[in-house]
Design a protein that fits this description.
Strand content: 5-15%
CATH class of the largest domain: Alpha Beta
CATH topology of the largest domain: Rossmann fold
CATH superfamily of the largest domain: Vaccinia Virus protein VP39
Structural class: alpha/beta
Number of domains: 4
Shape: elongated
Number of helices: 26
Largest sheet: 8 strands, mixed
Strand order of the largest sheet: 7-6-5-8-9-11-10-13
Helix content: 55-70%
Length: 824
Amino acid sequence: MPNPVRSKAGGVPAGTSLLPLLLVLFVGSGCAALIYEVVWLQLLQLVVGSSAFSLGVLLGTFMGGMCLGSLLLPRYVSPTAHPLRVYGYLEIGIAVVAIAVLYGVPVVGNLYAASVPHGYSGMLLRGLLCAACLLPPTMLMGATLPAIARWIGRTGEGVSWLGFFYGANIAGAVGGCLLAGFYLLRVYDMATATFVAVAINLVIGLLGLWLAASTGEADPADSRIRPVRLDEPGEGGPAIYIAIGLSGLCALAAEVIWTRILSLMLGATTYTFSIILAVFLTGLGIGSSLGSMLARRTSPRAALAACQALAGLSIAWTAVMLGDSLPYWPVNPWLSTSPWFLFQLDIARCAWALLPATILWGASFPLALAAAAGPNQDPGRLVGGVYAANTIGAIAGAVLFSLVIVPDAGTRSAQRWLIVLSGVAAIAALLARNRRTIAGPAHPPPPRGRAAAIAAGAALLAFAGSLVPAVPAGLIAYGRSLPTRDETGTRYLYVGEGMNASIAVSELTGGIRNFHVSGKVEASSEPQDMRLQRLLANVPALLHSAPRSVLVVGFGAGVTAGSFVPYPDVQKLAICEIEPLIPQRVARFFTKENYDVVHDPRVRIMFDDARHRVRTMAETYDIITSDPIHPWVKGAATLYTREYFEMVRRHLNPGGLVTQWVPLYESSPEVVKSEIATFFDVFPNGTIWGNLNQGAGYDIVLLGQRDDAPLDVTHAAERLQAAPRAEVRASLADVGYNSLLDVLGTYAGHASDLAGWLKDADINRDSNLRLQYLAGLENNQYQADTIYRQILAYRRAPEPHITADPAMMQALRARMGQPDLDAR
């Protein structure tokens, strides 16, 4: 039993009777922690970007702070200090620092943007910024488990309760993940979510202080605890710390890999990521509770070794499910337009694939605690050391596998490595020094028996590794629509797994080529896609008198960027792309369509998150054109916010123009209204240009101007007909635009025309990223033509927003509303 603590007369009972109540408090603590994690990662991504490197820095800093807190509290806080008082102050401290982070990050971000260099110096500065913002609160979070461990006690039964507390914290984390992802951030904003978590922390902290005052000071017997160095192992020896470190490495690396695959299968919305994380945490919580019970009934060392070996087999199970089974389940995601039905199916598929391994990893933590525990050992030191080993492994796994192993070797090899490392963890646990169990002395198997067990386990894990399949090319190409897709005649020209995304290039019967990113067709040589990609470049290039500098956000197949190549005035063409594989590997399959843009001497390709690049660059441009990924993809909404468009406007030269792609398919009127209203909020003189597919609305291009002057096309026709622009005319003719009038005929309205239609639209801001949550619920909607006709219903004559000679204006008015170019 834990050492009892004397209670004051009439106070709260001390000892184990408090443990259920403290479990409830720890549930709340975990809930608040996950709300913070979701908010802080979203908040800091706006500053340092959403690239794999930035996310690795963010995650490493977050978990590194937890690790430091778990190590430092037992070292610098005396065991004689009342654990509940320490715990209460920690929770209150988290609440206070969380408010500081909420309001401090924008200030720090502005300083960062004003001084950040690029290259390695910029990467270092990103890390320092994340450390300054995240280390203080995460260190306090990491210290809570060692603090509460000192209350629970030092006997075997107390150690088993530590596992229950770890599980309770994870249970709260599941609730916090779902609460933040599905409600607080969807309905409100980051500030509201933060203050909900702050309120939880304050309630928990005050209850902790009240319980400390009610139970009195710690028993003097606590002074018998002998000092323990940070590097001093318990009775299980350093091998236990190696085993639990490798367990953490495998768990976080697997989460990175499986999240990547599942986001292809389920659609990469913010809700998908919340579901995956919730299921992963649920498995850890279930496993932690089971491991706590198991630690009281068997040898923790042997059980830990078994968990690691079984985890290796479970990795193979998950790999087979994700590669050979789940992608082909006969699930048609478009049978229902309600996302809530699909969420239920997504949860079931995630649970089926992920729970076996996550339960085993969850069970490993309390087993490692029990295996490492020694007599008279400070429980805070014990928990802090084991937790730190697990967390250090987790950091290494997340960073190493996301930034190095998956991009270099692919997910198949990465999962095989995880199976091998699980086997190494099992061997480390088996070779650890033996200790007594609660039931009595443990009797290790003889050396020959242990060697035989290791050999048999190694053979079994080797067989399991041979079963791991590659990620199907069709899944990378078509994602959640793969089960309904007939791939007959589809030839995959390239499939690659990059640092930030998985990509593919396919060729269909008839020679049509598609470029796929993370389960979606992002660009193609289809007529409607070619027109859109040409419009994004040619609308601003034709309307600008002499564009000399251009920034293209998003490379795609390179067609939009390549459309600027024929313009003789363009002297500088910068391209910002987050995934290096795309220009390096994809561009060559579309050299005819993109004019071999990557080898043009005027071109400079920058690999970075576009928002981060725009925020921190000093250059200004005559034209900025943005063709980002679909707005329902997690992270893409940062390229559709009011603040982002303001940054873009600040980087336009006088007379500068900006174009923004907006898809009408896989969307709803509310989503499109939000995108257009946000753009026009920054560019009130903006216009809309439509792209049709077989006579129906398909997608649109928004055109914004730095200045308020009307668009003057009086001399645009003359410039287009000039001899140096013969290649421009040919480029337009390839997609059916045989004159300037054909391009101008796509005019679909002015910002002032749509004021009535947009009056109830949500403005997408950095503080709420409303579009991310709204679009994620509507990506099963196919109302493109309905939305486009609603826009056209508000369109009025182009004057005075477009000026030209009378003949041109008369011809333009006559052309407005013409049928699709394909039908001509």
